[in-house]
Amino acid sequence: ANEADRALKAAESFSRSQIISAFTDWRTYLWGLVFLSTYIPVYSVILSLPSVVTGLGYKGTTATLMACPPYGFGFVIVLTAGWSIDKFGRRYQHYVASIGVVVAALIVLMATTNLVARYVMFFFVMFMYVLPATLLYAHAD
Description:
Layout: H1 2-11, H2 16-24, H3 26-46, H4 49-55, H5 60-66, H6 69-88, H7 91-111, H8 115-125, H9 130-137
Helix pairs in contact: 4-8, 6-8, 6-9, 7-8, 7-9
């Protein structure tokens, strides 16, 4: 299989017009905007997770371990979303539902100072990881 892939890749040509086409297509810039508007909020929130865990009183290895469950939950959500989209389709509904969950979680994160509530909201922010799975990894019908 690898040899067949390499043979197909060797047969592809590289042209300057393809590069120009990519940089003059408005969809390239729209996708870049969507990518940045999706990942910057998530990573800014996720990078604050250690502060919340430390604020809850955990230290050292325990604090590190307490930062792991939201990621584990995100992993399960991505797998479940991929399976669900493959089985039922409805990519748009999956996308909109996950955005709704993330928006609500981000609003709560901004509005509350309760560290336990903030920690719980990190689990819901992980729904943001469903978005790339929805668009990229699910089988297109």
